[in-house]
Every structure is written in C-alpha cells, then in structure tokens.
Write a structure and sequence with these properties.
Chain A: Pfam families: BPD_transp_1, BPD_transp_1_N. The complex is a heterotrimer of chains A (about 300), B (about 550) and C (about 375). With about 550 residues, chain B is of the alpha/beta class. Chain B contains 19 helices and 20 strands. Chain B is globular. Classes of the chains: A mainly alpha (about 300), B alpha/beta (about 550), C alpha+beta (about 375). Chains A and B meet through helix 8 and helix 9 of A and helix 2, helix 3 and helix 6 of B.
C-alpha cells in the first residue's frame, strides 16, 4: 500500500513537470507582459522593473530559475500585487476557497447521494421524477445564473441573506456561495447515484439477498449502497480538486476574497508568477485527490488491490 | 408421493411492461410441490419457467407484476407484506441461481454473507452463527472452511461459489429449495459435482427441490415429477418416469427428440489433408507495457498438431479456458502463432494479412454468439454478401443479391428477409444467417466455434442438421469446437480432447466415447453420461 | 421449425436500428417538444431581429431601464416628463398641453419669438413624432404645436442604456446558438478523428495519443481558454474555433473507447475472417456503429459550448459590445438585479430553457439509440 502511494507520487512528478513546462511557455509566448498595461510607465522604469524581476533574461534562463525556485518551494513575487508573494496570496485566499469548496462538496455528496438513492428506490414514481427534474435543473442552469438569482430572491426580495461579501467568514455569508457551488454538484451526484443504485439493485447478488429474506435495510444499505457508491468515489477526486481551488464565478458575484478570482485577473495582466502558482496548485490538488480516491476505492472494493 | 402439498401455484400470471407494450410471460399456470419431492420445471428460453419461480418469491423486476395465488402451507405469498414474506424467504423457501459468478456480493467475505441470513432468521449470536456457517461450508464440501470464511467471492472458482450459494440457501433448513438452472453456467465436470451435492443434501436434509432447467438429462436423473412449459403455459405434467416413457404433448415429444442424433462417417483414408497444424503454439502476454513490469505469459495453445482431411469433421472438446477456440483461430491465421500451418499444399505459417486475403474465402469461421457476430446496422443481405465484395469484386449489385437469395434458401431462411436487420430475427435464425455468410463464399474449411451453444436444444438440432446437409452437399471440412459432448458426438468423426492448451486424448469418435483412456476424458464422459443414456432410451 | 414462422409473414424491408431509434424518439414527448422548442428558438433568433421594430443597437434615451410591458410606451404619466424635457431643451415655457387622441397639443410661450426649427426638439424625443405647428400668436411669442405620440412596444423592457431587450435577446440567441454549433462541430470533428485514430490504431500509438490527452486534461481548462482569448483577442469567430479545439478531449475519449470495443466485437472479427480490409471494416462496421454515441455526445457538446461562451462573456472575455450574447446580457443583468431584474430574468430564461431543451433532446436520443433493453 505505502509502496503504491510512493510509486503514484513518483509518477506524478513527470506529469507535474510537463504541466509546469507547458503552462510556463504558453503564458510567455502570449503577447504583452506584466508591466505593459500601466500606460503611465516610462520605458526606463519598465526596463528597470523587468530587470528587477529578471524578465530581461533569456526565456530558458527564466525557466530554469523558475524551476529552481519551485523546487525550493517558492512561487516568487506577484507582479501586479507587488507587496505580496504568490505564497502569501495563497495563504490568504486558499483557506477561504477551501472552506467554501469543502462545504459545497460535503453538501453535494450527502444530499446528492440521499436524493439519488431515494430516486432509485422509487424508480418511475413521483419521487424519482422530482429528483430527476431537480438534477436536470441543477446540472443545466449555469452558476452565473443561479448566483444572481439567489442574490435576487434570498438577498433582495426576502432579505434572508447578505447579497455578498465575506464578512470575516460569518456563516450567513457562506450560505449563498456554498449553495450556488453545491447545486450543480448535487445534481451530478444525484444522477450518478440514481444510475448506479438502480444498476446495483438489479444485480444478481441483490436478488440473492432478497431471496434469503434479508431485511430491506440490509438489502439496500449493506449490499446495494456499498456497490453503488463506487462511481461517486471516482467522481469525488476531480470534483474536490475543482471545488477547493475556488470558483471564479461564485467568488466574483458574491465578492468572496478566495483564490478563484486570481486566475483570470492574473492571466489577463500577465502576472506570470501568480498564473503559474495557480496552475501548480490546481495540478497538485488534482493529483493528490485522485490518489486519495484510488485508495478509497480499494477500501470499498476488495477486488481492487494495490501492491 | 402421498405426502402433503406445501407449495401450490394456482392460475399464476406474470406480466411485464416493456417499451413495446405489455408482455405476458406466464399465462395462468398451476404447479404444486409436495414435501420432500423433487419437481422439475422444464422449458426452453422464453417459456416463462424462471419467471414463475421469481414471481412466487416476489423477485420479479420492477416492471413485472404477478397475479393469481402462490400458497405456501395455505398462505398466499403474493398477498404477504414484505415483513411476512421475509420470514418465509430464505427460511422456509430458498433459492439458488444460474449465475454463480455474480450471485454473491463481491464486497463482503463469504463468512459475512453466510452468517447474515443465519442471524436474521434464527437470532443466533455472532459466535454461534459463525459455528453454524462453518458447519454449512463443511456440509457443501468446501475445503479449508476456516480460511474460506475470510475469502471474497472473486477469490473462488465458479463451482465453489455455487457451493457457497447452496450453503447460504440451506442455512435455515428450508422446506423448499428452488434451483434456477444451477449448473448451466458451469463446466460439465463441475455440473456433475454440484448435482451430486444437491442430491446428497436432499437425502440428508429432506427438503423439496424445484429444478428449473432446460436440460432433460438433469430432469430424468433427479426429478420425481415434471412440468413442461412452453410460451408461458404448462403443456404437460406428470410423473417423471411416465412422462419420459410416454410423452403426450407434441412439444414434449419434440423436446425429447431434440437431442442431436446420428453419427458422422469418417472420410476415406486417402482423402487429402486440407488444413494441417504442426506444433502450433499461441502465447498471450498479460500485463506489462511501459511501466507495468514483467508481463505474465499465458500459453493458451501448447504445441498442438492437427490434420483436417477433406469432408472430415474434427470435434475439439474441452472446458472453458482449455484453448480450443484459440486453436481454431490460430489455424485460420487470425491470431499470431508459432509452429507450422499448412493449407492444401501451401505453408501459411508466415502469411500476412495481404497474403491471407485470397485464401480467406476457403477458410471460414462461424461464431458462438449469433447476437454479437452480425453487424447490427447492416441488413441481412449486406451481412451475407460482404465477403463477395472482397472476393468477387466484379459482381454487380444484382448478381450479389441473387447470390444472397441462393444462400438464404440454402440455410432454410426466407430470401424475402434479406432486407431486414439482424435484430429482427431469433437466435436460431441469426445463426443460420451467420452460416449463410460463410457458405456464400463456397469455402473448403469451416471452423465452427460453439455454433450451437447459445441456442435452445430444439434449435440446436436444426442447426446440426443444417450443418450436416451443407457438409454433404459441398464436401466441406469442419473443425467443430464445442463443450457439448452430445452435439460433438453427432457431428464429428474424429475427436480431440483439450485441457489447458494441450491435447489430452484424440481418436475416432466411437473410440473416444466407447473407451476413453485418459482420466480427464473419463470425467468428461461421466459427467455427460446421463444425457447419453437418456438419448439411447429416447 | 417454429422459429421460421416468425420472419415469414412480413418480409421485404426491415426496420434498421436508426428507424427503431427514430420511432422511439418520436414517442418521447419531452424530447419531441424540446426539438420543436429548439427549432422555435432558432427561428426567432435568426429571423426575429429582422422583424422586431427596434434595432439591437438603438439607444432610446427616454426609455432607460423601462420595465417590460405588453402595452405601448409612452405611458400617459410619461408624456408629461417627456414633454417637459423636450420643451426645456427648446428653452421655452410650457403654457398648456393636452392629449387629443393619438396626438398631443402643446402651447408654449417665450420671451423671445419662438423659432420654428425648435420643433425638432420634440421630434428628437423618443416619445413624439411628426410635430407640426398648428398656430402661432401674431407676436410669435406663443406657439401651439401638435405632435404624434410615437407608440413603442418594449415587450422585454429596455436595458440600462435604453436599448430594447427583446431585440437584444434575440440577437444574443443568434450569436450563442451559432457559436454553440460552430465550436461544437469543431470539437466534434477533432474529437472523432483523434479518438477514432487512437482507438483503431491501438497498441503503442493509442497509448501515446491517450497519454497526450491525459496531460491536456490535467491542465486547468480555464487556463487554456484564457490563453486562447489572449491569443485571438476579440475576433470571436477565431476564438470559438479555438475554444472548440479545446473541448474535443471528452469526445476523443468516448470515440476511442467505442472504437476499441467495436473492434473487439465478433462481427468485426467475422469480417476480418472473411478477409475484409481495414478500409472495409472502418467504413462498413466501425463508422456506422460509432455514429450513435457521437450524435449523443454532440448534443451534450453544444450546450457545453454555449455555457462556456456565456461564461466567458460573463467575465467580459467573450463577445464585445455592442454585439451581444446571452452571457453578456446575463452579466449585465446580474449587475442590475437591484433595480431592473428583467435584465437578468429574460436572457436567463432563454439560455436556461435552450439548455434544458438540448438536454432533453440529448437524453431522448440516448434512450432511443442505446436502449438498455436490447
């Protein structure tokens, strides 16, 4: 098991390397630079700034430097928010994004699984159709529609929630963003769960359990659910990586100071280090969560073995 | 026989709601089971025999609905609440199924799954239930039961899983055991063992057994009474001996006569050898790759030599995994192999795709699965004339169509059907289409890979007769691959018995059947012997 | 013998799987309704902007953020304001006004003689038209003018610069649908070619090709899109060709999987055993059987692209003003929810209902082409 984890992490290194390299050169061949946007900058000052950050070196040298810094765990300074290093920006924003993302994920997994199971147990009945309708709505309506609608209904009309803002992490401020973020995930989980549960309930060993007179609880929870949960487990990896690294839409609309907003701004401003930092963080999250999921898989399913 | 009736099915009907409307699978049947007796419900696929018992146990799929009465000791199972039902299921009436590989929960240990029904129905504590479970595993002759308790289903063979399944079903000493085709998915030798076990357990425990089966051999061997079902109705019922000796209904007679009969006369000794393999070897690499480490080498065919003469049929017999299908494909150069393969006077061991192409029309292949081997998006006409596009490209569309009509007639299908699609035909008809596709090219050698295994007995017989007629008409040579000894005996004049990629024994058919020398062949024969005995008496 | 009886009575032409699928689709009411709805949306998006009386770029200064209404503008209570505004611009005083049928009669006074050209100020207002001088006092200090009330309908209201939301929503639909189709087709074509090649070639080639897909998968998707926006700038056709070029990954995986499984099918083995070459297998067996999954996935791809476009436009990276798309409109709506919620609700309804319809069609197609009971 440990050896497997070790091997997986080892094979992640080349992947990470490729990602860093591709991203580095992609953003660097894009026209423009971090200090082109501010018009007031005289050519001398710009040259000075560029020299200060080593941007006048040949590209390959900058690449080598970047890799070197990365190995030492440093993402470098942010070009557009010059008072901060990229690490500091993440230290501030990531916990907020992770909080919201985790809440949304947990909510989605719990609610989605329950709804999906209810639907599967009542296949082709009202409860099932309601869940399907909800899931269709959840997965069809984009977040940039749900977010303002939630603001409109709960914030402006009913005045139950604040329209936006972080409010130092007050619970009431998290409801809107978490709901917006969770809704499509609830839909996906509910659909997955419904599908796999129906399949699981049809499987031969469930027929066996019924033929042996086991209770409904045992048939559904012990035998059907455990098998049905496998697709949810594999869904959780990529979903977690995406949710925990912040959502641009949700953070913009609800004015949440997470890391989700950095990415677009940074890319547009050619804040190279911040873009690269975001890419690396997202890639790391993806790799780690996929590994966790694979290990979880082996816990649920004895047929899966890693040695 | 005079004992009390414990289960009686009265006017049972089962309907299914499908996309194409309501289908009535069981049309008002009556069946009764007396304490301690063995009842067989016999029928071909689609006869409703399984659905009858599924309905009795309330195990129908969600689109199914049962009406009528299923009385167990005077109480109608169909009207019971779930709670009441669950006090009968697994305790008074138990069931085992056809699919030993999937009928156990893959995520729990054998022990866990065995203990659960014991605790549920008898309220024993964990320790006592464990003791009981161990006793059961010993009862069904699972070696090393202590260790097996901790095994997962995927760590056991099909036969062992079926034994575990039986143990679970008998855990609470039921009155009735319903066995739904319990041996169909197993190899012949394992089948025999499971049947022996059931017989032994019935003697020890005294429960009634309801056998649902298509296999008349089993019926004759075990059943006291028989119900013959066809298209949702019971067409005949009665005492087993009487029914076999003197069947009344035409369908029963047909079923009894459905065993393929006759023998194949060997071709004259000077008949030329058409296809020859010398030391043919096929090795599969499993795993490996970029980072996967050492691949596992599986020797599927291990230095086999074979000579197929003109107008000869060689039967290749073996259980699943014996390498018989692989051998057939290697001889047609559809798989890379080592050794020498000759067709006529040509050495084709090294022939590539290009070089093989002109020879393909003389070397044809018919598959087991008549559903998978026909392209679902082509009409029957297109399917059977596809080979002509390759081998007789000069033909016009009209000529091809003409050939299609001929070919369909030859295999006994209505040529008007050539513009229909494969999914509109039954299994037997589809197998005829597959045969027509091979025959249209006028081949010399045809490899028949289990061509009858997926079909009902009565249809099997028709296909066997068709193949025989075609052989006689065109002086064909067959390589007949099968695990079904009855069919092989009727088709082949020479038999090769394979096990684990090697030839165990070979010789003319009468010799192999009359006097098997090797232990493995004897086991195979013994396992099938009741079918054989049955055929003689019929 | 029994089996033969089945095929005989109804010979000649059979129904292909496609025929079956179509029959099944026709029975699916949700899917058929969605299909009609999509056709409806497409038609009004394409032809609507030509029919609607307002151009999607015309700014009505007097009608900023007018709520949607079935009755015509200006409303009676608005006449006063519009009139006062216009008269103020004439630098004259209003003495009296009243409405006479579809015209207003207004009498103005001034300390200087009123210049006749002043009536253009009334015509310039979005509420009035066809202004005429009815009578003039001899000293020219008092003039009576009449002006037709310009009846305007804003069924969806107007946006915060006074543009008709109906024509803008329809125009936006045109853009969003066109982009969805365009980028969807680009992604589909690339995905099918890549996936089919990989799946059909198999072995080492397949391994390498899929490895590349894996790496592309692990790059943050939004990063790619933003880079493309940066590269292609504001040329939205080019940009969405590029977006299509990013979205092919799923399609490639699906097609590869299908191609691999089709290759393993017995009917392909049967064709190989008959000596059919690669091309014949590809044309007669692989492609026809691939079509189903490809069609199903295309119906998923198109809404994906529409959402992506809206998303980019929402961020201000997509379509640029005055051109518009549903995403642009929704983003404007989201910023104005406090005082003009119709700006959010109408475009959101169009976008969401279209996505729903595509979704139902996709589901319907999947059920029709790939029914579990076969």
């Amino acid at each position: 098991m440990l050896r497997y984890v070790f091997r997986r992490l080892l094979t992640a290194i080349p992947t990470l390397f490729v990602i860093v390299t591709v991203a580095f050169f992609l953003i660097r061949v894009a026209p423009g630079g971090p200090f082109n946007q501010e018009r007031g900058l005289s050519p001398e000052i710009r040259a000075n700034l560029e020299a200060q950050f080593g941007l006048d070196d040949p590209l390959w040298l900058q690449y080598v430097h970047y890799l070197g810094n990365l190995l030492r765990g440093s993402f470098g300074p942010s070009y557009n928010l010059p008072d901060f290093t990229v690490t500091e920006l993440f230290a501030k924003g990531l916990p907020i994004s992770v909080q919201i993302g985790t809440s949304a994920l947990v909510l989605a997994l719990l609610l989605g699984s329950i709804l999906g199971t209810i639907a599967a147990l009542n296949q082709n009945k009202i409860a099932d159709y309601s869940v399907i309708a909800l899931a269709t709505a959840g997965s069809t309506i984009p977040t940039f529609v749900t977010a303002p609608v939630i603001q409109l209904v709960f914030g402006l009309s009913w005045k139950l929630l604040p329209i936006g803002g972080w409010g130092d992490g007050a619970l009431i401020n998290k409801v809107g963003p978490v709901l917006t973020l969770a809704l499509p995930q609830i839909a996906i989980v509910a659909r997955l769960m419904r599908g796999s549960m129906i399949e699981s309930l049809r499987s031969h060993h469930i027929r066996t359990a019924r033929a042996l007179g086991l209770s409904d609880w045992s048939v559904v929870v012990k035998h059907a659910l455990r098998g049905a949960v496998l697709p949810i487990v594999s869904f959780t990896g990529p979903a977690a990586a995406a949710l925990l690294t912040g959502s641009i839409i949700v953070e913009t609309i609800f004015s949440i100071p997470g890391v989700g907003r950095y990415f677009v701004d940074a890319a547009l401003n050619r804040d190279y280090t911040l873009v690269m930092g975001t890419v690396v963080v997202i890639a790391l999250f993806t790799i780690v969560f996929n590994l966790i999921v694979d290990l979880l898989y082996a816990v649920v399913d004895p047929r899966v073995r890693y040695d | 026989m005079a004992s009390e009736t414990i289960l009686s099915v009265k006017d049972l009907r089962v309907r299914f709601q499908t996309l194409d409307g309501t289908v009535e699978a069981v049309k008002g049947i009556n069946i009764k089971v007396n304490a301690g007796e063995t009842v067989a419900v016999v029928g071909e696929s689609g006869s409703g025999k399984s659905q009858t018992m599924m309905a009795a146990m309330s195990l129908l799929s969600s689109n199914g609905e049962a009406t009528g009465q299923v009385d167990y000791r005077g109480r109608n199972l169909l009207e019971m609440t779930k709670n009441e039902l669950n006090k009968v299921r697994g305790r008074k009436i138990s069931m085992i199924f056809q699919e030993p590989m999937t009928s156990l929960d893959p995520l729990y240990t054998i022990g866990n799954q065995l203990i659960e029904p014991i605790r549920r129905h008898r309220g024993l504590n964990a320790q006592a239930a464990r003791e009981e479970a161990l006793k059961l595993l010993r009862l069904v002759h699972i070696p090393d039961p202590e260790r097996r308790m901790k095994s997962y289903p995927h760590e056991m063979s099909g036969g062992q899983r079926q034994r575990v399944m039986i143990a679970m079903a008998l855990a609470n000493d039921p009155d009735i055991l319903i066995a739904d085709e319990p041996t169909t998915a197993l190899d012949v030798t394992i089948q025999a063992q499971i049947l022996m076990l059931l017989a032994e357990l019935q003697r020890k425990l005294g429960m009634a057994i309801v056998f649902i089966t298509h296999d008349l051999g089993i019926v004759r061997r075990f059943a006291d009474r028989v119900y013959v079902m066809r298209q949702g109705e019971v067409v005949e019922e009665g005492d087993a001996e009487a029914l076999f000796a003197n069947p009344q209904h035409a369908y029963t007679k047909m079923l009894l006569a459905a065993e393929p009969t006759g023998t194949k006369v060997a071709p004259p000794a000077n008949s030329p050898v058409l296809l020859e393999g010398r030391n043919v070897e096929v090795v599969f690499k499993i795993g490996g790759g970029f980072l996967g480490g050492e691949p596992l080498m599986l020797r599927a065919v291990d230095k086999i030599s074979i000579r197929l003469k003109r107008n000869q049929t060689i039967g290749i017999v073996g259980e699943s995994g014996s390498g018989k299908s692989t051998l057939g494909r290697a001889l047609l150069r559809l798989l890379p192999s080592d050794g020498v393969i000759r067709f006529g006077d040509r050495d084709i061991s090294e022939a590539d795709r290009q070089a093989m192409r002109p020879l393909r029309r003389e070397l044809q292949l018919v598959f087991q699965d008549p559903f998978g081997s026909l392209s679902p998006r082509m009409t029957v006409g297109q399917v059977i004339t596809e080979g002509l596009l390759v081998h007789e490209p000069s033909l016009t569309g009209k000529q091809r169509d003409h050939r299609a009509v001929e070919a369909l007639r030859e295999v006994g299908l209505d040529p008007n059907a050539r513009n229909r699609y494969p999914h509109e035909f039954s299994g037997g008809q589809r197998q005829r289409i597959a045969i027509a596709r091979a025959m249209i090219l006028k081949p010399k050698v045809v490899v028949l890979d289990e061509p009858t295994s997926a079909l009902d007995r009565s249809v099997q017989k028709q296909i066997v007769e068709l193949l025989r007629k075609l052989q006689a008409d065109h002086q064909l040579s067959y390589l007949f691959i099968s695990h079904d000894l009855a069919v092989v005996r009727a088709m082949a004049d020479y038999i090769i018995v394979m096990k684990q990629g090697k030839i165990v024994e070979e010789g003319p058919t009468e010799e192999i059947f009359g006097n098997p020398r090797e232990a493995y062949t004897q086991t195979l024969m013994n396992a099938a012997i009741d079918t054989a005995r049955f055929r003689i008496s019929a | 013998m029994t089996e033969l009886a089945v095929a005989v009575p109804e010979p000649i032409v059979g129904r292909s799987l496609w025929g079956n699928a179509w029959a099944r689709l026709k029975r699916n009411r949700a899917a058929m309704f969605s299909l009609y709805y999509l056709a409806f949306i497409a038609i009004i998006s394409v032809f609507g902007p030509m029919v609607v009386p307002h151009d999607y770029t015309t700014i009505y200064g007097d009608y900023v953020r007018t709520p949607p209404s079935l009755s015509a503008y200006p409303r009676p209570d608005m006449l006063q304001t519009a009139l006062t505004d216009a008269i103020k611009r004439m630098r004259v005083d209003i003495k009296e006004w009243h409405q006479d049928g579809s015209r207003v009669i207004v009498t103005v006074t001034s300390k200087k003689p009123v210049d006749d050209r002043n009536i253009r100020y009334l015509d310039r207002s979005d509420a009035f038209d066809d202004t005429k001088i009815e009578s003039k006092s001899p000293d020219g200090l008092e003039v009576t003018m009449s002006s037709a009330i310009k009846q305007q309908y804003f069924l969806f209201g107007t946006d915060n610069t006074g543009r008709d939301l109906l024509s803008r929503t329809l125009m936006a639909g045109r853009i969003s649908l066109a982009i969805g189709l365009l980028a969807g087709v680009v992604a589909g074509v690339i995905g099918v070619i890549y996936g089919a090649t990989s799946g059909f070639a198999g072995g080492r080639v397949d391994e390498v090709m899929m490895r590349i897909v894996d790496v592309l998968y692990s790059l943050p998707f939004i990063f790619f899109v933003i880079m493309l926006v940066v590269f292609f700038g504001r040329n939205f056709v080019l940009m969405f060709l590029a977006v299509g070029a990013v979205l092919w990954l799923d399609m490639a995986r699906i097609v590869r999987g299908q191609a691999l499984s089709i290759r393993r099918q017995e009917y392909v083995q049967a064709a190989e055993a008959m000596g059919v070459g690669y091309r014949g297998i590809l044309v007669r067996h692989v492609i026809p059987n691939l079509l189903g999954p490809v069609v199903i996935y295309m119906t998923l791809l198109v809404p994906q692209v529409i959402i992506l476009e809206s998303f980019l436009s929402f961020l201000g990276l997509g379509v640029q003003e005055p051109m518009t798309s549903w995403g642009v409109l929704i983003s404007v709506g989201a910023k104005n929810i406090g005082y003009a919620n119709w700006l959010l609700l109408f475009p959101a309804f169009f976008l969401v209902s279209t996505l729903f319809a595509l979704n139902f069609v996709g589901d319907g197609l999947r059920d029709a082409l790939d029914p579990k009971d076969r």
